[in-house]
Amino acid sequence: MTNFSEDQYPRLCHEVGLSCEGCTAETGRQLARSCKGLRGKMIGQLFVQIHPHSACARMHAHFARAYRDASRELCGEPDIAMAAVA
Fold first, then answer.
1. pTM exceeds 0.85
2. Nearest 5 degrees, angle CA 22-CA 83-CA 27?
């Protein structure tokens, strides 16, 4: 396993075509598929385990939102914004 220094993130991700938004949204969706029913603190703890680099820390809320949105979709619950319109 290659160890990269903290100052190489997110540059390394961008070099392989990953954006911070896309990466954290996808991992949030994948977590929702594999671990249903997580609450706030546990989502945050898993974010840190999946994305341990300090450069990723600013994406915590984006990851959590992606997890919650995907969880609602998997459970068949309507999106809050769409429910308000209906």
1. no
2. 20
